[in-house]
Amino acid sequence: MSDQTLTRPAHAKPDHPALPRERIGILLANLGTPDGTDYWSMRRYLSEFLSDKRVIDYPAWKWQPILQLIVLSKRPFASGEAYRSIWNNEADESPLMTITKDQVAKLRDSMAATFGDGVMVDFCMRYGNPSTESKVRAMVEAGCRKILFFPLYPQYAGATTATANDQFFRALMAETWQPASRTVPPYFDNPLYMDALARSVERKYATLDTPPDVLVCSYHGLPERYLTEGDPYHCQCQKTTRLLKERLGWDDSRIITTFQSKFGPEEWLKPYTVEEVARLAEAGTTNIAVCAPAFSADCIETLEEINEEIRESFEHAGGQSFTYIPCLNDDDAHIAALSAVIRDNLAGWIAPLEG
Question: DSSP class of residue 253?
Answer without folding.
Answer: G
